[in-house]
Amino acid sequence: MIGLVLGIAIGIACFYSFPDKKTAATVADYMSLVSTIFLKLIKMIIGPLVLSTLIVGIGHMGDAATLGRVGAKTMAWFVSASIVSLLLGLLMANLIQPGHGIVTDQSGNTANIATASFSFKNFIEHLVPTSIFKAMAEGEILQIVVFSLFAGVAIMALGERGKPLVHLADDVAHMMLTITGYVMTLAPLAVCSAVASVITTSGPGVLLNFVKFLGGFYLTLLILWAILIAVGYFLLGARMSNLVKRMREPFLLAFSTASSEAAYPKILDQLERFGVPKRIASFVLPLGYSFNLDGTMAYTTFATLFVAQAYGMELSIGTQLAIAGTLMLTSKGVAGVPKASLVVILATLHQFNIPDAGLYLIIGIDQFLDMGRSATNVIGNSLAASAVAKFEGGLGPEKDDINAPSAAPAAAPA
C-alpha cells in the first residue's frame, strides 16, 4: 500500500515535470520495467504451480466418482456466481447510468484489439493444448488445466503405481511456493512502478474525468463483496470472518498489483490453513482462475452498458440479457490473456453493433479498474473452495493461529 501511494505521488510529479507526451511516454516505459519483470516472474511461477497442485488435488480424490461429484459441485458454484455477477453489473449500470454525460470524440476510430480468436468455435479449439510445454511457455492457464485433468485422472487410475508421481507433483508445488516467496519481495516496487507509469502518461485527471464510472464500478464491487460474504456466513457460519481475515493479505496483493495470479500461492496456503483439504483446494482454485472470475464478470456487463450509454444507445432488457449471456460464454478461460476483459468487451461491442471506439473511454483507467476486479476474484475463489469443502463434509479445523505471522510459503502444510 505504501508502494501504491508512492507510485501515485511519483506519477503526478513526473506528469507535470515532462509536459511533452513523447518524453513522458519514454519515462513511463522505463518506470514500468520493474512491474513488467514482476508480472513475468509471476507467469513463470503460475504454470508449474497450477499443473502440480491440480495433479495433487485429483490424485488425492481417491476415485472417479469422488472427482465427478466434486467437479459437478464446483462448476455449479462457478456458474451460479457468474450469473449473479453479470446480472449485478447490468443492474448497477442501469441504476447509476455512468455513461450519460460522457463526451465521445473518438467516433472516427476503431479500437486496435484483435477479437477473431474469441468466437465460440475458436474458443473450443483453443481449449485443448497441442503441447503442454507450449501451453506452459505461453501461460495458457486453461490449456494447463485441461492437461492437468487428464494427467491427474491417469495417475489416480494407476493406484499404488501412481503415488510416487503424486509425491513428485507435491514436491514441485512446494518448490514453486518457495520461489514465490522470493518473487514477492519485488511486489511493493512493482506496484509503485505500475501506478507511476500509468499516471505519468495519463495524468491524475484520468481518474477525475471518469469519477462516476470508477465510483459506480467500485460500488458494484462493494455490493458483490457483501453478497459473497453474506453467502459465506450462511454456509460457513462464524468461520467466514476468519476466512476474510486470512484473505486480507492475498486481497491486498491482488488489488495493488492488479493481478489475481500474484495472489494464487497465498490463497492456496491460507485455504489449507483454514481447513480446506488439500485435494479440494488444489482442484477448485486452478479451475476458479479460468471459470470463476466474479470481478471480471461484473465489469464486462457494467462496462459494455457504459459504452452504449456514452453513445446515447438505449438497449432493451432482452438485448441486455443477450449481452450477459454472450459474456457468460466468451469470458471463460481468458485469465492468461493480457487485458482479457477489454478483448471480451470489444468482441461483445462488435456483436451488438455498439461503437467499438467507446473502448478508448476506459483503456486509460483500466489499470485502476483491474485492481478491483483482481481483488474480487480472490474473495470469489477462496469462498468457492471453502464452500465445496463444506458441501463435501471435508472442511476441517483451522491449522494455525490466525493472528500469528504467516509462515514462509515453503512451510505450507501437506
In brief:
This protein is mainly α.
Plain-language structure description:
- With 414 residues, the protein is mainly α.
- Helices cover 74% and strands 0% of the residues.
- It has 20 helices and no strands.
- It is globular.
- It starts with a helix and ends in a 23-residue tail after the last helix.
- The C terminus is likely disordered.
Instruction: Look at the helices and sheets and give the structural class.
Output: mainly alpha
N-to-C SSE series? HHHHHHHHHHHHHHHHHHHH
Helix content: over 70%
What percent strand? under 5%
Give a short account of the largest sheet.
none
Q: How large, in whole angstroms, is the Cα Rg?
A: 21 Å
Task: Give start-end ranges of low-pLDDT stretches.
Answer: 106-118, 333-338, 406-414
**What would the average pLDDT be, to the nearest integer?**
81
Number of strands: 0
Quote the distance from N terminus to C terminus.
31 Å
Shape: globular
**Number of helices, where a helix is a run of at least 4 consecutive DSSP H or I residues:** 20
Name the descriptors.
disordered C terminus, 414 residues, mainly alpha
What's the arrangement of secondary structure elements?
Elements: H1 2-17, H2 21-31, H3 33-59, H4 64-96, H5 120-127, H6 132-137, H7 141-158, H8 163-183, H9 187-202, H10 205-208, H11 211-236, H12 239-246, H13 248-257, H14 260-274, H15 278-291, H16 294-310, H17 317-330, H18 340-351, H19 360-363, H20 366-391
Helix pairs in contact: 1-9, 2-9, 3-7, 3-8, 3-9, 3-14, 3-15, 4-11, 4-15, 4-16, 4-17, 4-20, 11-12, 11-16, 11-20, 13-14, 13-20, 14-15, 14-20, 15-20, 16-17, 16-18, 16-20
